[in-house]
Specification:
Blueprint (H helix, E strand, L loop, with lengths): L2 E5 L2 E4 L4 E8 L7 E7 L6 E6 L6 E3 L7 E6 L4 E6 L8 E8 L13 E2 L3 E6 L1
Parallel strand pairs: 2-11
Antiparallel strand pairs: 1-3, 3-8, 4-5, 4-9, 5-6, 7-8, 9-10, 9-11
Length: 124
Amino acid sequence: QVQLVESGGGSVQAGGSLRLSCAASGYTYSHYGMGWFRQALGKEREGVAVISTGGGNTYYADSVKGRFTISRDNVKNTLYLNMNSLKPEDTAIYYCAARPNPLWYASFSGFGYWGQGTQVTVSS
């Protein structure tokens, strides 16, 4: 079965950086689109970034564009999210997700598998 396990969350001051990782198993990793989502306390879950199966296409939410970078390693079956210039409003639980569709489309829809999440807290 599909398993997604996030790591790398923590507490950081505004302006700092963090790198999230997501280890995937139980399926052919390179055949699925991957993404990062987040949910802040009291708010709905929102898309952060999406990456195509081969890593050549990416799509970002406007709120993180230019600060966050999504990448993947199809040998290590691992997804990454490099987060720079962090702001207090980036505080949330961050989730890794898999989209069981090899076709690329710049959208946060179609994700059917989710990790358990990792907390990111940015203090001012």
